[in-house]
Amino acid sequence: MVQVVSEARVSASQQIAGPLILAAAVLTTAIPASAAAPTVQTGSTDQEIHLDGTLDEPAWQQAGVIPNLAQQDPHPGEPTPFTTEVRVLVDATTIYIGFVCHDPDPSRIAIHTMQRDGNMRGDDTVTVVLDPIADGRRGYYFEINAAAARLDGLISGAEEMSTDWDGIWDAATQRTPGGWSAEIRIPAQTLRFKWGQDHWGFNVQRYVPRTLTTLRWSGITLDATLIDLQRAGQLVGVGALRQGLGLSLTPYGLIRSEKDFESDEHTLTAEAGGDLTWNFTGDLTGYLTINPDFAETEIDSRQVNLTRFPLFFPEKRAFFLEGSDIFEFGSGLGRDFIPFFSRRMGLYEGEKVPLLGGVKLLGRAGKWRIAALGVAADQTEVTQRTNLFSGRVTYDFDEHLTLGVIATDGDPEGERDNSLGGVDVLWRTSTFGRGKDKNFSVGGWAAASRGDLPDGQRSGWGFKVDYPNDLWDVNLIVKEFGAGLDPALGFLPRPGTRWYSSSIEYRPRPKEGFFSWVRQFFFEFRPLYVEDANGHVESWRVFTAPFNAQTQSGEHLEANIMPQFERLDEPFEIAEGVVIPAGDYSFTRFRVEAQSSRHRPWRIGAKVWFGDFFTGSLTQAEAFVTYTTPSGHLQLELSAENDVGRLPEGDFTLNLGQLKVVYAFTPDLILSSFIQYDSESGDLGANTRFRWTIKPGNDLFVVWNHGWRHPINNDKSFTLRPINDQLVVKLRWTFRW
């Protein structure tokens, strides 16, 4: 793998990493150390805690106590009627967190979901973040609402978190005459941590949506985010936690019935496989998967694509999500370049590629953090049998500076030689500026491909300077992708380009006067300039928000203006039969948007883009309506998109409709259905899932997928004919020692 480092990449990495490391060293000496973090000492118990949401066991009286959370938003430090007590307990293998949430009007507590990883942004919630390594960089996120619905995630930075990860943990809540209470149980085996380390990074938060009030233990300035682990407090007394033998075995078995109506073929199969996990040490874990299957994974949301570039679809498969935070690479890349994109493993051009097995190593040794992943993909009609690999190593130079490298090898198609290597550096602080309380970061990266590649420069580089704070949020990004930079295991939609972009947001909070009904304004100015490998402009746009406001009750109102330019070097078919000729095009787009507050049972919203578009005009209208019963048992969401283009080359209309129906008997017994239709394919698809979590880690899934198609060349008919049907029953069980 060392051969991945080509001369081009070494040159680029020296150009970027060298000056940035020097600048970071200077900044490290210039930034003062942060103030002492708050500390809570855990209580210990050997008594059983019955998880029912009521903190009535005698052991809770021995717990470490945070007597009240402080207001963080909108008025830091000011008193509120929402007093919140937090208690923390540990036994030999588990950490328990209890909340007592007082509310002056419990009838207004908001619940919109009981679904695992459901949308809780309009719900009364409590959240725990843990940094078991206590390095202020990466950690775990656990959130529940007042109905005990669970949401979890992996934190990879002060502004970066993936909520697709599902850990094994549990929670229960109880409504009380004075509010609500909650108990959270997190097994030590769910976490990676250094055995014997007695202090972890720790923070807790409560959110009251009807008043948009956030209460927090540590980091209560408006510039602080909960997932900024540099602002977390300390949890002391966890050094005795152990993970037993550190072994987990999760076998599964399933029965799958499939029918293709077009060929009239029907198959019935049975499969088995599983995962084995071994914690070699508390913070170094090995994973083995045999014949993995992801039948229970929710299908992707369909998207309308009116660009000439491929769309991005996130990873949702559990095996690949564990440790995905460590694979995060580079500053300012977003979705424009992902050196390792795990969806390339086991999927090819949207079709499933069977995986024979895979191994993974995740963890930490001192200041080093490592992630390595290898899988063996089976042969299909369009791909060869192949082995795929990705590895990532980072080194924490000090509390601010992190250096890292990444390498990938293999081609999902199995037809060519392809590998990639990269280096990145990031320096960040939360004690910047005269008040020693601002966020600031600077980072850079360089990468290069090797193997059977397209013509052109095989390397890329970039950097980002970021000042993300409440009143001013400003950044500057420069990045270049060579035409020959080809990450077969990554995602790069626009090779052969150089990007210059910036974002300047001014976000005042009116206190009185005519605009006292506004909680916060968001005035945005975001220019983007993209040129090709020869330095010629390829596209540019300037996104502005002359009006963007959130009201005191949570409504959102926005208006945007976006002039832009696109150069087409070759004709572009934007819709079937509608081809835009090559040439230079300047046009201006406008948008208006309005959404009601998330805390209401009924919620509606709409946005409309309109204006010129290449040689003609385009109107894009999106609207949604949601309803949730007060208890959160039933959730309905209907959304629609209508795109109408009027161009000299031809007119087109594209429609997309989606309906989600979720009924939760309990947070552990969920029936959901996701129905989608798009006019471009003429396909109607339904994904219906029944999930019974018998206990955390033990699940029964029943998944039904059915597809219909609209008759070709018959736009007036509402007839749909079935094209495919799949029914899967899957049971997985976790054994831990």
Description:
The chain has 737 residues and is mainly β. It has two helices and 45 strands. The protein has a 24-stranded antiparallel barrel. Strands 1, 4, 7, 8, 9, 10, 13, 14 and 15 form a nine-stranded mixed sheet that branches. Strands 2, 3, 5, 6, 11 and 12 form a six-stranded mixed sheet that branches. The two termini are 36 Å apart. Residues 1-34 have low confidence and may be disordered.
Defining key terms:
mainly beta, Immunoglobulin-like, 737 residues, single chain, disordered N terminus, nine-stranded mixed sheet, 24-stranded antiparallel β-barrel
Brief overview:
It contains two helices and 45 strands. The chain is mostly beta strands and 737 residues long. Among the domains are: 1-35 and 282-481, no CATH class; 43-236, Immunoglobulin-like (Sandwich), CATH 2.60.40.
In terms of topology, how is this protein built?
Blueprint: H1 7-30, E1 39-41, E2 43-44, E3 64-66, E4 70-73, E5 84-90, E6 94-102, E7 125-131, E8 139-145, E9 150-157, E10 160-162, E11 170-176, E12 179-187, E13 199-208, E14 213-216, E15 233-236, E16 247-260, E17 265-281, E18 284-290, H2 318-321, E19 347-348, E20 351-352, E21 355-365, E22 368-377, E23 386-396, E24 401-409, E25 418-432, E26 438-451, E27 459-468, E28 472-481, E29 497-506, E30 518-521, E31 523-532, E32 537-551, E33 556-568, E34 572-575, E35 578-580, E36 583-595, E37 602-613, E38 616-628, E39 634-647, E40 650-666, E41 669-678, E42 683-695, E43 698-709, E44 721-732, E45 735-736
Parallel strand pairs: 1-15, 2-5
Antiparallel strand pairs: 3-5, 4-14, 5-6, 6-12, 7-8, 7-13, 8-9, 9-10, 11-12, 13-14, 13-15, 16-17, 16-44, 16-45, 17-18, 18-21, 19-20, 21-22, 22-23, 23-24, 24-25, 25-26, 26-27, 27-28, 28-29, 29-31, 30-32, 31-32, 32-33, 33-36, 34-35, 36-37, 37-38, 38-39, 39-40, 40-41, 41-42, 42-43, 43-44
